[in-house]
């Protein structure tokens, strides 16, 4: 996993956590849902990149 991809996934996760927390504070269910969706996207990115790393190690 490249450092850039890892940083993008981490940033998306942090963004999602912040948005979810904002939704908790304001009582806005749309913000909470959008924040959770961003966290899920970041998790998916990590999973894909981890799979790429495993494939690369298997080939090497």
Describe the structure.
There is one protein chain. 92% of the residues lie in helices and 0% in strands. The chain is an all-alpha fold and 60 residues long. α1 runs antiparallel to α2. The radius of gyration is 14 Å and the shape is elongated.
Keywords:
60 residues; mainly alpha; 2 helices
Offer a quick outline of the entry.
By secondary structure, this protein is mainly α. The chain is 92% helix and 0% strand. It has helices spanning 3-26, 29-59.
Rg, Å, rounded: 14 Å
Distance between the termini: 15 Å
Principal-axis shape equals elongated
The SS-based structural class is mainly alpha
- Low-confidence region ranges: none
The portion of residues forming beta strands comes to: under 5%
